[in-house]
Structures are given as structure tokens and as C-alpha cells.
Amino acid sequence: MVKLTIDGKNVTVAAGATILEAAATVGIKIPTLCWLQKVSPTGACRVCAVEVEGVDRPMTACNTPVKEGINVTTQSEKLTEIRRKLLELLLVNHPLDCPVCDAGGECDLQDSCFGLGASRQEYSALLEKRPIRYDWKLLESDPNRCILCEKCVKVDHEIVGADAIEVVNRGEATIIDTHDGAPLNCEFCGNCIAACPTGTLISKPFKFRGRPWTFNITKSVCAFCSAGCQIEYHARDGRVERVTSEDDTYNSGNLCINGRFGYSAFNAPERLIIPTVNGAETDWESAVSTAANRLKGIVTAHGPDAAAAIASPRLTNEENFLFQKLMRVAIGTNNIDSEARFGYAPAQALLAKNIGLYGASNPIDRIDTAAAILVFGCDLNAESTAVEYRVIKAATKNDAKLVVANMRDVKLTKYNHGRLKYRPGSEALLVNGLIRAILDAGVEDREFIAKYVSNLDALKESLAGISLSQVAEATGVPEKDIIESARLIAGKSSLAIIFGADAMRSTVSADCIAALGNLALVTGCLGKEAGGLFPIDEKNNAQGMLDMGVAPDSLPGYHAGNAAAVFETAWGAKLPAAPGKDLWQIVEGIEQGSIKALYIAGSDPLAAFPNNRRIRKAFDKLEFLLVQDSFPTESAKMANVVFPASLAPEKSGTFTTLDHRVQCLGKAVNAPGLAREDWDIFAELYGKLAPASVITGPEQILTEIKALSNLYGGECSVVKGRCQGAGKRGFALKEGLSFVPVSAKSADGGDYQLLVGPILYHNGTISGWSANNLTVAPEGYIAIAADDAGRLGIAEGAAIRVTSSAGSMTGPARISKALQKGLLFAPHHFRGLNSNALLEGSANLVTVKVEKG
Amino acid sequence: MTEPRVFFNFGITDDSHTLSAYRGRGGYQALEKALRTMQPLDVEKEVTTSGLRGRGGAGFPTGSKWSFVDKKSPVVYLCCNADEGEPGTFKDRWIFEHNSHQLVEGVLLAAYALNVRHAFIYIRGEFDLSYRRLLLALEEAREAGLVGERILGTEFSCDIIVHQGGGAYVCGEESSLLTSLEGFKGYPKNKPPFPAVKGLYQAPTVINNVETLATIPWIITHGGGAYAGIGAQNNTGTKLFGISGHVNKPGIHERPTGYPLKKIIFEDCGGILGGKALKAVIPGGSSTPVLKGFEIENVTLDAESVIKAGSMLGSGGIIVIAEGTCMVRLLQVLTRFYAHESCGQCTPCREGTAWMDKVIGRIVAGQGVKGDLERLEAVTSGIMGNTVCALGDAASMPVASFIKKFRDEFEYYIEHGRSMFDGRLEI
Questions:
Q1: A65: closest CA of chain B, how far (Å)
Q2: Residue B247 and which of A420, A526, B4, B241 are 20 to 30 A apart at CA?
Q3: How far is CA B131 from CA A803, B92, B110, B137, in A?
Q4: What is the per-residue pLDDT across A608-628, written as a single tens digit (0 to 9) for each?
Q5: How many CB pairs under 8 A join A and B?
Q6: What is the mean pLDDT of residues A766-780?
Q7: Which residue of A has its CA nearest to B192?
Q8: Is residue B344 part of a domain?
Q9: In which band, very low, low, confident or very high, does the pLDDT at B1 lie, cut at 50, 70 and 90?
């Protein structure tokens, strides 16, 4: 600790702290312009100048470390004069166009000039006009307004890692621009807009939408990926006009393109606003009655198991809870499932069985401080950008060792220390190879294993049949890389293992997840302060949905049938005894005619689910299809009854992040037209099917959830008007765990395999309705390795036709360096391309034929 | 000449820059001596004893600079600052062109003293012959086993890496030299941390000027005490002075420190061109404050004396200005240079240098307005001491001193819209 004096106050701070930080601890605020806590100090604006006794020149508080015994003055006539002069110098080149500047009213330069009394352009002379960049997508840059604080560049480089903008030129001609002057080509996260203290970098869609102080600001939670970033909706006249995030949030104010710009989906002109019955617009009364009568009719005629439901990770916890209750109590069937069936739900079930783990084992901010990180089968950039920012922070600022195991090159590979580029289908074998290498090197966490795991010998024995040379042969990863990566991740004080769709939806997913569980135990990454095991789902409330019992075999809180009595008492109803059908069994049931009615809320199986040509054929056989959605989806087009539903900013309730933070939504606007909140629709239908029930709102449902599920106990903690999440259900590590026997099948594909997955610029299919996202990524494409493209004579942008046993698609080719030979990739967001149709089942990989289109 | 010479101690011929010529005059014997008979700390001690001060401009005692470095650090870097760009300064170029080996030997001795495995020479991009001569010298030295692995058969190994600058004046500032060397845009860094603690690639780093390093072989050969006996007491040794401007014989002169400034101008350089009177002298490179002719009467060429006169010895680039020169237009040349070379990182320098240039430009264009001089003074006081690096100070000092000392000329120019000294100086 270091002792010093600031403005006569005694201050004690840790060595290495800056004068600015030290001053803040005793409530002394030193003015700053270029300082931004979350990035490295720049020290360029010089506004934070302070006097240090004995030093002849003023020192910048933002980057001068404290020293024992120094005496600092932060306010004096001399300093005020220096600061005022600096602002006058900044003003000389600054156009006074505040009346038409988007930042007017939230501009640090305005505030500073006002605060320091810099009220005129002292050195007035001719302004040099610099061209405004109108040719960028989503962003606009007016260098004339720039004060060169470099915050945008630092956020871009240090946090996002896109390296898209630079400080170019020198001296007075210095501006912020792309390094080559070409139009901006980046991740379009807009974090630079948020960092900009003036109106230099602004959001195009927000431009001229209104003065900042005229909006209603509602604190809420992002409704795209599963990281649950804390945001603010700025709304006026029933429209969300922009989304921001403050720097003191859990996510440090960092968002991705979906979080910051995806809001235009909420305002999409295609939104469903009127209920329809058989395609005809009607009122709610007749729509709900029709649905209730049809459902009742089918249940009466064929029994409750003739009905089934597909819920959605987009719905709130309360809505999902009510949905499963509706199916189980009001209709009387366990036939409810969701798209989590393709990967997240079975993976969670496996890890729950083997390790007792549901979701992530630690909050995601523990990734920041992990000593090592393994990102396995996950393109974090697309699956959860917020988590990727944390990995970048850990690897670049906290010296974490990063190993990236992915069949493709992803953004994180530029930061990795170890790289495992494996052959598609060899995921499980690769993990077992890593475990083998860890055990061979003797770097397993012996203390952890001795305490928690019983059968290390059994694991060693079952690994005996796997040699690293075999693994290298089958995975295509050189043996030395496996050994090197094993050393990088094991034997460290903490390790974060992050895995995603390529693991959970692998062709050998069960083996892969089991092996990842073993790896977590071998490396002892569980139950520590830092690191942990983190499954990543692309959608925001996958974890909450499963917590709510949206699965044929589990009640809310993962209670199985034997706990039914508690629920029966609480609900005053008998729960269905027959086991429910999971998603694929529901599809089969429809095909076989045993399921005649299907209720879908917030999902579009015909575009977002794999093998959806099969599903479409099945839907043709349905007697009754009820779709509750916000958009005219493919499924809604086939529906007998359509309920227009609301989206995240239009409802209250809670979302659960992948790491169990249960955060309250803030209702920013009302749903458009006649659209209603999903819980409200479920409640009304419930009332029609089981008249005894009265549901008043999400609060009441949450109380019931807390009482019945043993999850989400406790009150929300609210800090500065923002919900920080209800009492978390932390992961409690139990003793007596065992390694799972090793199975290391490796799936063999043909010459070409197609990987279907998300890309950065979209999230699920909802962003497909967002004009902002579509500006950047308007249509689907099929990425192909350069080698393959050359051999097949396919040029960039030329049509390419890909066919699997389940279907085929034609789209423009994109020649990619990220892909290995024989691998193709197609994004799954685009209804036009419908790449999901080629997948044969839950796996995100399929053997295909490729030809010119 | 009876004075000892560190640099001008050989006749320049077509091959006097080669290794064999250098060895012929005793070259690399200091290195032999150090590697075979001295411990690294002994080398540092000799340099400390010599009283040698950095020749780049700031004049910081070299021995003391070296002593700040933790030699036990796993990596220590040495950078030779050869980005000689200060207007009026051209001494390092002479060393490169005529005796690169002397610098190479100096670098090796410093590297030995500081436990450096990799030394860098950051050479100004515009230097062509210098660069070629340096590469030639390094090639010769490598072949002779003087650079690289196990130098002269000893345990000491050191590689010298040459990096050409991209043409930015600011990269001669030591911290921006390091950022540039690391591959980034040449932005100065905020200090602390100082390079001796966290410099190149975050390792402790010593940055020395070419002339400073090239002096070290002499010190090792003759002893620090001998060097300390030369020249002025607190600023010992000999120094290269580059005299330019309105003198009859401009050029480089090696003189012991403490040598009279007047003598070097009027005797060694043959006096003012055309027998004109001396109007002013900029004594240490363009950034040092200007001295009026009469002010140099008793000035000697050592730090203390020049400071007493109100300026700085700087890099030893003496710019002589004859009577009849328009100081307003001269100042414009200087401010245009600094505005052009400001890196643009920090506010006061970026905005301030550009505005000083614009205001002086408008005075020169005959459009100056009353209050411009006060405005300029206000800007200089806003820049000085408030910038990341010294470029802001370097740009402000000439402006402040020119206006202070030649205010009547500036006022005349503003009032009449033309110079007190129209036309070209007849020389």
C-alpha cells in the first residue's frame, strides 16, 4: 500500500494505482476527457493535469502511478487555467454545430466546456473542413467533431479486437479512420459510438431520431445471446430508438451488433399485430376461443397426448413456466420440448448426471481472471460475443493461456497460444487425446482428483487404448500440438473450459460432452474462484427455459416424476403419468398421426430447426397448428390460429443467463397493435382450458417458480435502478464424482461436409427481421475452402449448390481461408437460404455433395 | 591542435571508414580491453567517472542513466538513437559517414556494460550514405567476429539490429522511437514508467545518442579520468558542433566543451558572411531559445554557460543569423516544421503547434491583427510543460523567445503588413 496526500486528504491505495484512482477513493473527481476505465490510459487530452509537489510540470492523473508520500493538488488557479486553455484549443477546430449534432446533450466536450467556463473560440480562424464518412454502414464519422481522445480506437483494439479503426495521419491532420481509408468493415458492435465523447462517431439508424433527453430510458436485459448483457432501451412514441449500455454494468457497457443494433427487429413493419384464424384477421376473443375449442376437441377425441408444444428460449422464465404448466395441467400432457433438444438440453442432462452441473459452473466474469482458457468447438464471436470479449480480456490483459479447438479458424485464433484445428467429427477423440496428454505429462490436478473423484485408475485404463499418435492421425492435429495445448491448459491455478455448438451438436456429441466433463475433472477446473465449465447457447434464455421444466422428462427445477406430488398439491391437479415426447418424437408422432395438435410459441421450426423439410411435411398432417409469434414466420404461415405476441422490450419478466443470473426485464414500450405479452396469452388460454386458474402477472408466476422449483430463491438485488439478478443457484461441487468411461468414436464424413451455424451479424432468426442487421449481412452464403473452390471451378460469389440426404440449397459462394479442405459452412439465420434444411438431425454437420449452382 | 580528439583524429580518405583503417588507428582495442580485462561494472564506472553527458540534447549524465537499469533483468535492450532530425544538427551523420565502426564499438561496449544481448540502431530514414556505411561496417564487424555470437572468442554475444525510421521527427524522441521500433505508429509514451524501467517490449531499455556511444571507446582506452580532464568541469569532454547559417565556413567542428561560442563563429568558421554584423544565434538546434548577438559575448560551449545566457546547449547545432534577416519569416519556417512534425497525440501540441503556425502564417501574409502576439504567447504557455513529450516545448520555445527578443520586428510586421527587412538577404 502507498500513502499520499491529495488536496490535503490522506489517501492509502494499492501500489500501481494512478493518481486518478487514488483521488476517486476519497471522492475527489479530477476532470477527464480521454480517460476510459475499461481501456489502457491514453494521456492525450491532458485535461486531468494535477500538480505534484516538487515536480516542475503538471502530471496527468490518469496515467501517473502514485508514489509514497507525494502531495497532489487537483484544484488550483493554475490548473484551471491549463484546463481552460486545453478546452479552448480543442474548441478551435471543433465546429459549433451542437444544434444538429446527435451528441448534443450527452457530449463530454460540451459538459467540460460548460464546467470550466471555456465559452468562446478564443483562437478563432478558418476551420478546415474534413469530409464526413457517409459511406459506412450503421455508423457515421464526422472527423470535424473529433477531439482525438482515442477511446474508440482503444475499445476497438483492446476490447473488441476488431482492429477496424486507427488514428491516421499526424499533427493537426490526424483523424480516426479505417487504416486504408476504405469504408468501415468491422463487427459493427458500435462500442466505439458509446465510447465517443462527442458526436464524431454516431449511429446512423439513430441519427436525427431525437435529442437524447427526450427518450424514456428503461434498464433491461439484452434479448439476444445467453450472456445477458445489461442494457438500456431508449424509447419514444412506442418505439425503441436505440440501445445503450452503461460502463458500470456487468458487461462493462460492451455490446455486440445484435445488442446495439438488433432493436430494429422490434420496429419491423412485418410485426404481427392482429390475431388470425385460418388466415383471416379477427379479435382476441374469437381467436382464443377457436384455439381453446380446437384443442379441447382434439384432447377429448384422442386424449391429451395428441397435443404437443414447442416452447422457446426467447420467452421469459415466467412464460415458459406457464407454457409447460398449461400443457401439463390444462391439457394434461408432458409433450413439451424446444430447440434446446438439438444440443444444449442433452449436454446439460449429461453433465448433470456426471458432475451435477446445470449450465455454467461459475459466473462468466470468472473467465476474465482464469489462468488458462480452452474454447472448444465454439465460435464465440457468433455464439456469444459478450463471452468472447471476456476471453480477449483474459488473454490480452490478464495473461491467460488460450487454446482454441475449432474445425475452423475463428476470430479468437489470432489470440491463441495453442491451436487445435481438428477434423469434423473427431471432437470426442480430441478431448480424450488432451486428457491422455495431460495424464502423460503428469499435470492433472491431483489434489482436486483426490478430493472429488474416485476412479482415476479406471480412466487411465480406458485411455490406455488411445495413443496420441492415433489421435493425431484421426483428428488431423499434430501430436506435438496436443501435448503443447495440454500443458497450456492443465496444471494452472484455474482453467475456463468454454464449449459451444460444435461440441453440443457434434455428430459424436454425447461422447464429446462426456469427455469434456472428464477433462473438467482432470484439470480441476470446477469449484474454483476463477475459471469453470461454460456451455454456450446462442439464444438468451435457453438455460431459464430448461430450468422451467420445458422438457418432456423434467418438471420445473429439474424435478423428476417422483416429485410430482408437490406440484400436484400446489397446482391442484393430477400431472400426466405418461412420459412426454421430446422434439424429434413429437415430429414422429405427428408423422404417425398420434399427435394432432401442436402449439408453438416463439419458435419457427420450418426455418430455424434442422431437417425442416421433414418437419414441414409432418405439419401438413396436423389437424390443428397454433402459432404464437411476433413475426410472420414460415410456421405462422401454415398455422390455423396465429396469436401475435410481444418481444423483449414490450414485456416484463425474467431471463436467465447461461451462468444462472436471473435478471428482470424492463418494459420499455407497449406491444404494437393488438399483440400481447406471451404470458398474458398463455394465461387467457389457460383460463379457457382450465377455468379454475387466475393468473395476474409475471410477479405472481415468479413467486410460484421460486416456491416450487427450488431455483431463483431470494429477492432481486437492485443497484442504481438495475436488477442485478435474483439469488443465484451456484454450482455446488460434490465429492464422489467419477470419470465416465471413455468412448472415442470418430464420425467419418464423405468428401464434403457442411457445417451449419451462426455468424456474428445475426442471432437466431429474429435478427433476420432487423433492418440494421440486414444492412450488414443481408443474405445467406455458402463458405467453401479455397482449395475446394478451385477444384470445383467455383468463383467468389458464384452460385453453388449443396445437397444432402435431407435437402439441398443454392447460394452464393464465399471463398474462405478459415475452412479446412472438404468443409463448407453456411449460416443458419437466413430463411431464404434455409441451410438448416440440409441437416439430417440434431447434429450441425452433414455429409453433402457440392456442385456449381 | 594540441587538444585531445575523440572524433577528428584521422585523415578522411576513400577508405578511412573501413574496418582495416579503423583497426589501423587502434579501433576495437577498447573492446578487446573491456572484454578481456574489465567487468561490465568497470565499464560503467569508467563512463561515470568520465562525466560524459548525453549528446542528444538533454545532456543527462550517461553513467547515471546506465545505473538506473536493472542489469539482472532477463532482457535489457540498448537503443542507439540515430534519428538525427533537429534542424541545424548534423553531427551524427558525420560519424556514420566517416567512422561507423567507432559507433559500433561504442554500442558493443555499452551492451557489455548493460548486459544487452540485442542492441538496436534506429537510424533516420533520410540518411542514405550513413545507412550504407553503417551496414557495411556491421557486415565487416560480423565477419571479423566483432558482432554476433561469442565476440572476440569471449562469452559475450551481442547482435546489432539496424532499423530505418520512416521520416517522422518525433521518432527521435526516445519513447516514440521505441513505439516505432515495436512496429506501432511513432507516438511518444507517457512517463513514468521511464524506459530504464519499462522500455522496448516492456523490458528495461537504455537509449543513447550516436555521439554519446561513439565516445565510449575513447573513454575505455584512455580512462574516464582522462576524459573528465577535458573541457568544462560539469560538462566534460569534447563535443561535435555543427555550425550552419550565415558564416563563411559552415561545418562540423570538434571542440572541448567550454570553448568560447564567439571564437567558434568568428575564428573557426571565418566570421559572418559578407562581413555583416551578428544578429542572433540559435545555440543548440532549432528548438533552443534564440540569443541576440550581444548576448553571446561571454558564452562558452557548455551546458551551464548557455543556460546562464538564457538558452540551451542542446545537440550542438549552432545556427548563426546575420543582421538583415527577417526574424518573423525565420520563425515561420521553424513553426511550420514543428506543426508538420507534431504527432497529433496530445491536445496542446496537436492543436497548439498548428495554430501557432497559422497565426504566424497570417502575420507573414500581411494579415496579422493586433493581439496576435499575445495570442501566440498564450498558446505557448498553454503548450509548455503540458505535453506528452518535449516536442511541444521544442515548438514553443522558439516562438516565445523570438517574440520576446524581436518584438519590435513582429509588431512592425503586423502594423505595416510587411517585413522590416524586405527582400532577400544579400549574401
A1: 8
A2: B4
A3: 62, 11, 21, 10
A4: 999 999 999 999 999 999 999
A5: 99
A6: 97
A7: A64
A8: yes
A9: very low
A426 belongs to a structural domain: yes
Chain A: residue nearest B375 by CA? A123
Q: Report chain B residues whose CB lies below 8 A from the CB of A41.
A: 190
Answer with the one of B229, B253, B274 that is the final residue of a domain: B229
Confirm if A794 and A784 have CB atoms less than 8 A apart: yes
Q: Are residues A367 and A332 in the same domain?
A: no
Q: Give every CB contact of residue A847 below 8 A, 6+ residues apart in sequence.
A: A749, A750, A752, A753, A754, A804, A805
pLDDT in tens, B196-243: 999 999 999 999 999 999 999 999 999 999 999 999 989 999 999 999
Please report residues of A whose CB lies closer than 8 A to that of B193: 65
How many structural domains is chain A composed of? 4
In terms of domains, do B121 and B159 share one?
Answer: yes
Kindly state whether residue A372 falls inside one of the protein's structural domains.
Answer: yes
Domain boundary residue among A506, A535, A564?
A: A535
Domain residue limits at B249: 234-322
* Domain containing residue B346: CATH number: 1.20.1440.230
User: B161 with B31, same domain?
Assistant: yes
Structural domain including A70 reads: 2-75
The DSSP bridge pattern shows strands A662-664 and A654-656 to be antiparallel
Choose among A113, A262, A132, A114: nearest CA to A202: A132
Q: Are residues B366 and B270 in the same domain?
A: no
SS3 B122: strand
Whether residue B318 is found in the same domain as residue B333: no
Looking at the 3D structure of chain B, how many domains does it have? 3
Q: Is A167 on the interface with B (CB under 8 A)?
A: yes
Shared-domain flag, residues B360 and B262: no
pLDDT digits (tens, 9 = 90+) for A295-307: 999 999 999 999 9
Domain presence at residue A53: yes
> Are B382 and A49 inside 8 Å of each other by CB?
no
Q: Mean per-residue pLDDT for B273-280?
A: 94
ipTM for the complex shown: 0.89
B28 plus B174 within the same structural domain: yes
Provide the chain A residues 85-104 that lie in CB contact (below 8 A) with chain B.
85-86, 88-90, 92-93
Question: Is A64 near chain B, with CB under 8 Å?
Answer: yes
Question: Within this chain, do residues A428 and A384 fall inside the same structural domain, yes or no?
Answer: yes
Measured N-to-C along each axis, helices B347-364 and B372-383 cross at an angle, to the nearest 10 degrees, of 160
For residues A453 and A439, give the distance between their C-alpha atoms in angstroms, rounded to a whole number.
15
Query: Which of B280, B301, B322 is the last residue before a domain boundary?
Result: B322
Cell of A277: 384464424
State the pairing for strand pair A641-644/A276-277. Answer: antiparallel
- Neighbour-count burial for A221-233, b at 16+ CB within 10 Å, e otherwise: bbbbbbbbbbbbb
Is A355 in the same domain as A468? yes
**Which residue type sits at A578?**
A
Task: Please check whether residue A846 is in contact with residue A775, taking contact to mean a CB–CB distance below 8 angstroms.
Answer: no
Query: Are B278 and B211 part of one and the same domain?
Result: no
Q: How far apart are CA B93 and CA A803, in angstroms?
A: 69
Q: Which of A535, A565, A584 is the last residue of a domain?
A: A535
Residues B360 and B338 in one domain: yes
Which of B170, B339, B351 has the CB atom closest to A93's CB atom? B351
Asked if residue B3 has pLDDT above 80, the reply is no
pLDDT digits (tens, 9 = 90+) for B172-181: 999 999 999 9
Q: Where are the beta strands (DSSP E) in B210-322?
A: 238-245, 251-256, 278-282, 291-292, 317-322
CA-nearest of B288, B338, B387 to A82 is: B387
pTM confidence score: 0.94
Residues A524 and A593 in one domain: no
User: Cα–Cα–Cα angle for A715, A716, A718, nearest 5°?
Assistant: 130
CA distance A623 to A204: 47
**C-alpha of A688 from chain center:** 37
